[in-house]
Amino acid sequence: QVHVVESGGGVVQPGGSLRLSCVASGSIFSIHSMGWYRQAPGKLREVVAATTTSGGTDYADSVKGRFTISRDYGKNTLYLQMNSLKPEDTAVYFCKAHISDGAGPNDYWGQGTQVTVSS
User: Mean pLDDT throughout 55-67?
Assistant: First the structure.
């Protein structure tokens, strides 16, 4: 059984910063990739940033230059440093991990963490 848990959300003023964390645990053979997604009320879930299987990173245009994704391979942990936050960044942020467990590769999602940017 695999668990993915996010933390670090909260309420912040425009221009502020937050750091999200995502930890994957359980029966993990290998983590192929991990990424951050977000879903605002009334909108579809969208990718924010992701690490690739080759170790690279990709970002949505809307967050380039403001957000930084990083991964601690030894701790099965993914981070998202969010700077210069804007009200339009308000959303529930989800972590997705593509993991090989005993049954083969699958996508595992966390429960989400709320980020609210408001003055």
Answer: 95
